[in-house]
Amino acid sequence: MKRFILLIALLLLTACAGSAVPRTPSALDDALRQVITAEALTGDPSLGRELPAIDDPLAQLGKQLFFTKALSGDMDVACASCHHPLLAGGDGLSVGVGIGAVEPDLLGPGRARSDSLANVPRNAPTTFNIGLWDEAMFWDGRVESLGKTAGLNGSDDQGICTPDEHYPDPDPLAGRDLVSAQSRFPVTSQDEMRGKLEQHKPNWVVRDHLLGRLGNYGAGAGELATNGWLAEFHKAFDLCASVEELISDENVSAAIGAYQRSQVFVDSSWRAYVQGDLGAIDDAAKRGALLFYKNAAEGGADCAACHSGDFFTDEQYYVLAVPQVGPGKDDGTYRDDDYGRFRVSGEPADMYAFRTPTLLNVAATGPYGHDGAYATLEGIVRQHLDPAAAVAAYDAAQLNPTVQTEHMAYNTARALAKLEENRSLGLPAIEPMTLTDAQIADLVAFMETLTDPCVTDPACLAPWVPGADDPDPDGLRLNASMPSLE
């Protein structure tokens, strides 16, 4: 009996000490170490960047602004309605519902517009790690750095172009970085937040009205029954200035930008593996990683050709011919269609091209594609492997019934034709390749290791969500209900 107890004790001691025992690298580990070295990977794309902490006063003001419905024209939607931390910085929908929701505080799959239309043309990209983008914002890059300084997230000497100026002229009012510049446009988008406010007027008129609403001056004076915004701006800026100077376009965008740039979630198991923990990911993920990084000639999927570096994107634009669902960006002749980067650049090669998304936290940020056409990682992987075959097999039943599909077949055929044209012209384009079901499962297993556990942990995300002790300057805070997470 004593020998048995001693044996159990030894086994327990061995198990407890197991994490401290160095693992012997396997053949998979050796092969991946060569890849990690060749690709100069660190596992952490935030290294060397100047990013604010969530407890910074400016980020705290940004959090309040991000969650108030006062920044929408009809006071029924907040930035967080489509980019909520508890939904991994997105909304969980293929194409979002901004203004006119039946239940304004209901988020996730049950959210619907009162006229049953999904009214935001594109999938809501996650705001998580948004401060790591250097080149541009949005699926079509319409907010773009014209000359970035490395590590400063779009801060540059040559400026930032935005939809307020003719492309590619710099916008003198863009703000200090790409994220601040981006934050100025959801409030002017008819479908996202603008609503009926100052219809058919320039963007600056809309912004001035909203600033006056917060500051109780100008066109927006008296619109808030409760207004404690001036005190909150003083906390963040500590300036002796007039209300118009303090509650300004520049300061609002800087605060919202600081809040979003504080959302850094890069502590994934892949990062741990790259930094030396051989047991951080399993063999399926390791096989998937090799497929991800090997090119077609080596028997791989060549994913890293576009999803490159520690941030897993080259920030460029490609035609993938994802099924064209949803309302699309109105391009006149072709209804419910979306021409992607072409709408910004006017370059024929950019027709139906969209920006390469980052894969960090990808397991939590579906649906996938510029219009959220795919509900699963497997589905979007198969689209990459053979767009024509994936489109032919596409099942629209994975979409919410409110997502428009009336013109899907015609518009998607045009996107496929454009992909073939780009191939024939020798332009960068995806070439069909074949992988087994087991290999696709390995690729998905690898991509699942790119997610920081914090992004699915409400307690870990709590600092980015206003709590009972946080100021609510106007009583219009989004108090989200998410039945899908309950």
Secondary-structure map:
Layout: H1 2-17, H2 27-38, H3 57-67, E1 136-137, E2 143-145, E3 160-161, H4 178-182, H5 190-194, H6 203-215, H7 229-237, H8 243-246, H9 249-261, H10 269-274, H11 283-293, E4 317-319, H12 342-345, E5 353-355, H13 377-385, H14 387-392, H15 408-424, H16 437-448, H17 458-461
Antiparallel strand pairs: 1-2, 2-3, 4-5
Give your account of this protein's structure.
By secondary structure, the protein is mainly alpha-helical. The protein has two domains: 57-263 and 458-485, Cytochrome Bc1 Complex, Chain D, domain 2; 303-432, Cytochrome Bc1 Complex, Chain D, domain 2, CATH 1.10.760. The protein has 17 helices and five strands. The protein has helices at 2-17, 27-38, 57-67, 178-182, 190-194, 203-215, 229-237, 243-246, 249-261, 269-274, 283-293, 342-345, 377-385, 387-392, 408-424, 437-448, 458-461; strands at 136-137, 143-145, 160-161, 317-319, 353-355. The strands form two sheets. A three-stranded antiparallel β-sheet has the order 1-2-3. A two-stranded antiparallel sheet has the order 4-5. Strand 1 and strand 2 form a beta hairpin. Helix 2 runs parallel beside helix 11 (283-293) and helix 13 (377-385) crosses helix 16. It is globular. Mean pLDDT is 92; it is low at 1-20 and 149-154.
